[in-house]
Write a structure and sequence with these properties.
By secondary structure, the chain is mainly beta. The protein has one domain: Immunoglobulin-like, CATH 2.60.40. The strands form 2 sheets. Strands 1, 3, 6, 7, 8, 9, 12, 13 and 14 form a 9-stranded mixed β-sheet that branches. A 5-stranded antiparallel β-sheet has the order 2-4-5-11-10, covered by helices on one side. A hairpin with a 5-residue loop joins β6 and β7. The model has no long low-confidence stretch (mean pLDDT 97).
Length: 213
């Protein structure tokens, strides 16, 4: 099981989200989504994650460079895992439920509180609005484009939205980071912490790593 320490950077809350990337690159904890979990899906794009927290939110910067790019979904709650997608799953220690936060390269989000892949409660529109996002991509849907593309997505997820008390954080939570693109010419399923499953399945809380505050 991998682990990382999430640094505390209070300045994150006073910066525009478009300016946060530079601070995260230089001061946060960097990890790589570079584990190929299923040999039949051997393609591995460059996929980097920088993670830090402020007083109120968890900040995640995703950087991806790879072959082709796709973003057909424009509304929160859509199946963005079919697009060029990055994901963060988390759960509190000792709890059965977990949360998934999935984003296509436009920053469109699909998120829920879950017991399993099928048993879930989607976020409300008001909760989706609490997740701040900044992407280097133009905010416009497009079909799959061939070629080498690089993009960056920064998200700020409120700690309270994840069920955490900002004034009384636990020592750690459990989680994983993923890069996928299910319905593209080169489908792939890479992760930070290895996933043990016979077929592609990121809904495996037992395979989460440790994230220390």
């Amino acid at each position: 099981m991998k682990n990382l320490i999430i640094p505390y950077l209070p300045a994150l809350d006073v910066l525009e989200l478009s300016s946060v990337g530079f601070l995260l690159e230089n001061k946060s904890q960097r990890i790589y989504m570079d584990v190929i979990n299923w040999s039949e899906y051997a393609y591995k794009p460059v996929a980097v994650v920088d993670v830090a927290r402020s007083n109120q939110s968890l900040y995640i910067r995703f950087f991806v460079k790879g072959n082709s790019l796709k973003a057909v979904y424009e509304e929160d709650g859509s199946p963005v895992y079919k697009d060029s997608c990055v994901e963060f799953f988390m759960k509190k220690t000792g709890e059965e439920s977990y949360m998934n936060f999935e984003f296509n390269c436009l920053g469109v989000c699909d998120a829920a509180r879950r017991i399993s892949r099928d048993m879930k409660a989607m976020l409300s529109k008001e909760e989706y609005k609490q997740i701040r996002r900044y992407t280097t991509m133009e905010q416009k849907a497009f079909p799959e484009k061939k070629g080498v593309y690089a993009w960056e997505l920064v998200v700020a997820i409120p700690l309270r939205l994840m069920g955490l008390d900002p004034g009384n954080l636990p020592e750690k939570i459990l989680g994983n980071f993923y890069k996928c693109a299910d319905e593209t010419d080169t489908p792939h399923y890479v992760s930070w912490n290895p996933v043990s499953a016979p077929v592609p399945d990121f809904h495996r809380p037992e395979c989460f790593g440790e994230l220390y505050f």
